[in-house]
Amino acid sequence: MIDNPSGPAINADPQLRTPTTGPHEYTGCHRTADGKLVDTATGRLHSMPLTVLDTRVRKGASGKKLVMVIDLARCDGCGACSRACSKMHFIPPDRQYIPVLRMQDSEFTAPYFFPKPCYHCDNPPCTKVCPTDATFKREDGTVLIDTDRCIGCRFCVAACPYGARSFNWDPPKEAPEALAMPYSPETGFPRKVGTVEKCDFCPEMGGEGQLPACASNCPMDAIWYGDQNEDTVTVRSGRTEKLSKLLADNGGYRHLEELGTEPRVYYLPPKNRMYAPPAPEATHGHH
Amino acid sequence: MATTEVAILPSEAPAHAGDELLVSTFAPRWSYRFWVWGLWLIVLAGLTAYIYQLRRGLAATAMTNYFSWGIYIVNFVFFIGISMAGTLISAMLRLTGATWRHPITRLAEAITLIALLIAAPMIIIDMGRPERLWKVLVYGRLQSPIVWDVLSLATYMAYSALYLYLPMIPDLAALRDSPRSFTPARRRLYRVLAARWTGTPRQRQLLDRAITIMSVAIIPVAISIHTVTAWLFGMTLRPGWHSTIIGPDFVVGALYSGVAAVITAIAVFRWRLGLHQWITLQHLRRLCLLMVIFGIAYAYFLLNEHAGSVYTREGRERRLGELIFTGAYAIQFWTMVLLGLVAPVVVLALTRMRSVGGIVTASLLVNVGMWLKRYIIVVPTLAAPIMPPQWQGKIAYSPTLVEWLITAGGFAAFALMYTFFARLFPVISWWELEEEEREQLHRDPAVRSASLALAGIAAFVMLVGIGVRQAAAADTTRPSTQAAGATPLVALATADEDGKRQVVATVTLGGKPLENAQVAFRLKRAFGFMLLGSDKTLDDGTAAAELPRDLPAEANGEVEVTAEVAAGPNYAAAESTALFPGTPSPANAPLPRALWAPHAPRSLIAAIGITLAVSWGVFAYVLFQLFKLIRSPKGAVV
Predict the structure, then answer these.
(1) Which of A70, B168, B457, B636 is the most exposed place for a label (fewest CB within 10 A)?
(2) A153 to B127: CB separation less than 8 angstroms, yes or no
(3) For residues A14 and B420, what is the distance between their CA atoms, to the nearest angstrom?
(4) How far, in Å, CA of B124 to CA of B341, rounded?
(5) Bridge partners, A31 (sequence order)
(6) Do B389 and A284 touch (CB under 8 A)?
(7) How far, in Å, CA of B321 to CA of B307, rounded?
(8) Minimal-distance CA residue of chain B relative to A243
(9) CA–CA separation, B94 and B208 (whole Å)
């Protein structure tokens, strides 16, 4: 059968849009003490070559142009993406790589939930200003951080208009599993004081043909991830669509397009929503 | 008038100066000791705070992921601002031939160098990993405004050091030759620094040429340092920072606060060293007038900075405006306007610029106001992020004791270095004063050609790589079979229909074609399987779906198609997989040279390279003049 370890079997009628019912559980992956990547739900081992800091790390997955689509009509604000990401990356509780914001563009428009990962822009304001090439754009579209090179000037934090980056102000208390791993910009472990971190599109998952932690744990199938060269994106349940068709049929857009950063994350507008929107007083407002 | 010690040089002093002696050769008075000890105490407190910060990380400050820059950056910008003005004023006055400048040029130039020596550590203090500073030199990216700032700061520091030193040479020579008793080390210092100056016409000519060239060349360098510092903010997308006015705004603000700092310094030394004869009220008034002019200019810039956003109430700027004019930062903003712009004018108007006390008060007010202005530039923008601040806790910034101690330490270190400078070296440029009084001015006409200075302009060039596509090869099929029995067999092949390629699954059960079986065709993609089509088998057992020829394929040029037959009334589910030719995806183009890429656009490299070559070339030429001065044949040797 189709190899899809992190979700239910393929629905016989793929056109049916049914949200996953049941409690908002997430599975995700974690690393064992000896550095093996293991599926949390099934305990199955993923064979994961340990990445070494070499030029390949700076080039990225060859032939792929990674892209993400977030369907705001499906996102119900459960935060499973955030929790799964935090679990996989052993993120301390004071920061999130993919926070779920509550947005309301103006007084009489509808509020909606807004997961906000790093957009891995094609015209990234962060890599422009980095004085040491510590944060860098790869050929596969992702933007990573080399915490061995970062000098902690926080210019990238100032430059990112989306607030995607977090800084290690304190000496971090890293999880023992993370400390055991050899360092690579593709994992970011172990964290170092005085350096920057952010969402990295889970390159080690991508190397295994797996969706990133957020996409593979979204119970609403709201986060699509795929390869723009192939023009396909996939959700947690395994459903795979043509990217161009998904965007065209649903009026896909990019957030704050006018800034010119050319994000690699598209959003599908919150039309025909499947959830209750956030209460208006809970939203801060788009502007 | 209290008995004071004055730096006067016996041989070249104006006749009316008398024979008084260098201040430091006298036992310092208690007020001086108290001053120095107090400053040392504050500096040590600042150092202690920094050591604590090194151990604790930047969490010792109040900075957060929202307020990622704080008062360290405010201090950095403030000291860069002060540094810009001292040398610029000296150079401009020199070039315009303002003869009243002579008693104040050295103090102004010293302010520049010492302010730079405080600004540079302040930025290192702000770094998360200060021990990695060398990586900026080894791995530096020319596209980063921080690298521009490093280059500009280094250039300006060298320039201002030389510009301070050159006019000091004759005074140092007089100190070298002075019959006063100095410690041997100090005497040796004067001798080395005096550059074998003996006052020959050749030496005077060389010195004049060097100083004149420097006066011209240092102006664009000084303007560049604060423009580039402004671009640390201007090259981001944040409201309040991303404005076209920010470069000139910083430069004019720096001139304003710099003149005020020069006034304060001059007035203090005039008072403590009893220099009333040489630094007169007229000097202070003229500087004060300069300060007022810059103040009016700065008020104009402030108006322009905010007028557009207030009028249009454009989205992101609106929130920032609310914070500054009526919100959390209103107190700082209006205090800045009051202290920095309004009060000095009021004070000066009331005293008609005739009172030294009034002038000094005004200058102090300006400096406090301009520090607050730097705070208003840095912090409120961070309090108005573009995305709503919902995920990183409270959005407030209140500097901690560590930050205040380090700030105080920086200011104390500034005052301390300035004090020690005044102890070691004469604070008034005596030989220039004397030259002026003798009305013997040499100007080398050949130096007129020394006009230069380009601002570096970065032009953006984007190269797009083009991948090469290969045509698809002939069709091939590789059917797979499964166990016989109640499980149907599925064979996959391709066929052409109306010019389009189709994948056809032939389902047989026990050798006979299976009709009405539901077949789903899936294409293996990077992260999942895409549905190509779903079809029911016809009476010949075939079902088909479109398989476009230009489907992006794996690296080997093949696409993997799986046909799934759903279970039926008397048969189980089955599937079969086959590989077909596709169009191999082009390998990703290597990253082009770009501002955001590791390698800089060639035009940027050229622009920065030319700018540095010119400014360092001029510097080298001036050093060469100094070298010739040192080596020129001696006149009367002491």
Answers:
(1) B636
(2) yes
(3) 81
(4) 31
(5) A37
(6) yes
(7) 10
(8) B530
(9) 11
Tell me the C-alpha to C-alpha distance, in Å, between residue B96 and each of A113, B90, B100, B215.
63, 10, 11, 10
Residue A95's beta-bridge partner residues? Answer: none
Query: Any residues with CB less than 8 A from the CB of A37 and at least 6 apart, and which?
Result: A29, A30, A31, A45, A46, A48, A204, A208
Mutate to test the interface with A, among B142, B153, B387 (most CBs of A within 10 A): B387
Distances (CA, A) of B148 to A230, A243, B228, B378, B593: 40, 41, 7, 19, 18
How do the residues of chain B divide into helix, strand and coil, expressed in percent and rounded to 5? 55, 10, 35
Sole residue written with tokens 């010195």: B207
Complex-level ipTM beyond the 0.90 threshold? no
Q: Which two tokens stand for residue B29?
A: 């008075």
φ/ψ of A167, rounded to 5, equals -120, 145
Lowest mean pLDDT among A168-172, A273-277, A280-284, B49-53: A280-284
Is the CB of B69 less than 8 angstroms away from the CB of A211? no
Q: What are A133's two structure tokens?
A: 């090439």
Band (pLDDT 50/70/90 cuts) for residue A241 is: very high
Residue (of B88, B71, B458, B452) closest to B252 by Cα position: B88
Tell me chain A's radius of gyration from C-alpha atoms. Answer: 18
Residue A2 to residue B554: CA distance in whole angstroms: 18
Residue whose token pair is 């996939």: A234
Facing B527 at nearest CB: one of A124, A129, A234: A234
CB spacing of A129 vs B56 below 8 angstroms: no
User: Tokens 């192939």 sit at which residue?
Assistant: A230
The residue among B132, B236, B527 with the most chain A CBs within 10 A of its CB, best to mutate, is B527
What does the pLDDT read at residue A1?
28
Q: CA B119 to CA B237: how far, in whole Å?
A: 25
Which residues, other chains included, contact B192 with Cβ-Cβ below 8 Å and sequence gap of 6+? Answer: none
For chain B, the C-alpha Rg in angstroms (whole number) is 37
Is any Cβ of chain B less than 8 angstroms from the Cβ of A156? no
Q: Confidence band (pLDDT; 50, 70, 90) for B509?
A: confident
Residues of A in Cβ contact (< 8 Å) with B525? 226-227, 230, 232, 234, 240
The minimum CA-CA distance between A164 and chain B, rounded to whole Å, is 10
Rounded percentage of chain B residues whose pLDDT exceeds 90:
55
The mean pLDDT of B562-583, rounded to a whole number, is: 88
Q: Give me the residue from B522, B525, B598 closest to A136, CB to CB.
A: B598
Task: For residue B363, give the amino acid letter.
Answer: S
Predicted confidence (pLDDT) at residue A13 exceeds the cutoff of 70 = no
B145 is written with which tokens? 């405004």
- Per-residue pLDDT at A38: 56
* pLDDT score at B427: 84
Q: Which two tokens stand for residue B283?
A: 């000097």
**DSSP-derived secondary structure letter, B428:** S
Which positions 82-141 of A are in contact with B (Cβ < 8 Å)? 94-96, 99, 101-103, 116, 123-125, 127-134, 136-137, 139-140
Cis status, amide bond into A176, omega within 30 of 0:
no
Q: What is the reported pLDDT for B463?
A: 33
Identify the pLDDT of residue B430: 79
Residue of chain A minimizing CA distance to B148: A131
* Per-residue tokens: A90: 């052993």
Task: Establish if A167 touches chain B: CB-CB under 8 angstroms.
Answer: yes
Q: Which residues contact A259 (CB under 8 A, 6 or more apart)?
A: A161, B237
Sequence-ordered strand ranges (E) for chain A = 29-31, 37-39, 45-46, 66-71, 100-103, 112-115, 135-137, 143-145, 166-167, 196-197, 223-227, 232-234, 239-242, 265-268
Residue type, B601: P
| CB-CB contact of A132 with B141 (8 Å) | yes
CB pairs under 8 A between A and B: 233
Q: Quick one: angle between helices B356-383 and B71-95, nearest 10?
A: 130
